[in-house]
Design a protein that fits this description.
The structure is a single chain. The protein is mainly α. The chain has two domains: 90 residues, no CATH class; 33 residues, no CATH class. Helix content is 53%, strand content 0%. The chain has seven helices and no strands. The longest helix is centred in the middle third of the chain and has 13 residues. It starts with 7 loop residues before the first helix and ends in a 9-residue tail after the last helix.
């Protein structure tokens, strides 16, 4: 987490990988997409994706780019970060993304995994940070 902001470093990593032609194609449709988590993050910061992409391509650390976002969009305070991180960490748990989560779990053949309750947990599973079996 950069300055305590969940998701932001992941979004920057995806932009960097995409710029080098190394982002897996299944990530392309949601990169910067408004209804995806990237878009929600950008909306929260009040920053345009194309502007952020150009800034990332100029180089710099995650912290420097987040500072640029604060200058370009809006600065977040501790309360904003608490709200954002709470939203991100629970996305897909008893909210409008729950049907999408259940659909993805079914597609992955893990409908029985009661330990996967959020989109971030599904991402962790997909990217190898959680075991494929809950047993």
């Amino acid at each position: 987490m950069v300055n305590g902001m969940m998701w932001f470093p992941r979004m920057l990593d995806k932009i960097r990988l995409h710029s080098r032609g190394e982002l897996p194609s299944d990530y392309h449709p949601n990169l910067g997409r408004g209804v995806a988590m990237d878009g929600r993050c950008l909306n929260f910061l009040r920053v345009n994706f194309e502007d952020l992409k150009k800034r990332v391509e100029q180089g710099g650390t995650d912290e420097e780019i987040l500072d640029w976002c604060f200058q370009t969009g809006r600065r977040l305070n501790d309360g904003d970060l608490e709200v954002w991180n709470g939203f991100v960490s629970k996305f897909g748990w008893k909210d409008r993304a729950s049907p999408f989560l259940q659909k993805r779990k079914k597609e992955e053949g893990i409908s029985d995994r009661t330990d996967i309750e959020t989109i971030p947990e599904l991402i962790d599973l997909d990217e190898g940070r959680l075991p494929r079996s809950d047993r």
